[in-house]
Inverse folding.
């Protein structure tokens, strides 16, 4: 149901490590999982250390965009950084949702650094039985 639009993910990760934090014009990728659970698709993004007000979720037609920003924590003047491995900056993922998903009823939850989107499968895409009518009212066409 999801179409992956990021075939060079590992290359992007390497470039992120070499070029530094992401910016709004050049965001870094964020790790995610996507799976189907019953009648909905679930997409989970790892965003540890990001506050909920720094996350932006947009849907335009079938394009879903998630952007988040991890800001540096305030430090006292006498603090000397010894090691800094946690990436800061802007993170983003964008992908196309299938027409069979209901983009009007997406639910988003953020807990313990994980943003979870639940996207229901639209009613028209669910399997359904078609009844067969048996008619005794047959007509012949003569020509």
């Amino acid at each position: 149901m999801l179409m992956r639009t990021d075939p060079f993910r590992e290359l992007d990760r390497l470039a992120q490590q070499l070029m530094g934090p992401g910016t709004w014009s050049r965001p870094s990728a964020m790790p995610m999982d996507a799976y189907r659970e019953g009648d909905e698709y679930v997409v989970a993004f790892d965003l540890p250390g990001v506050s909920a007000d720094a996350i932006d979720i947009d849907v335009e037609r079938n394009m879903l965009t998630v952007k988040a920003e991890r800001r540096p924590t305030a430090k006292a003047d006498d603090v000397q950084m010894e090691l800094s491995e946690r990436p800061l900056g802007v993170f983003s993922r964008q992908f196309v949702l299938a027409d069979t998903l209901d983009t009007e009823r997406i639910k988003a939850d953020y807990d313990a650094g994980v943003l979870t989107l639940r996207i229901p499968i639209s009613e028209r895409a669910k399997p359904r039985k078609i009844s067969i009518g048996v008619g005794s009212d047959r007509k012949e066409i003569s020509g």
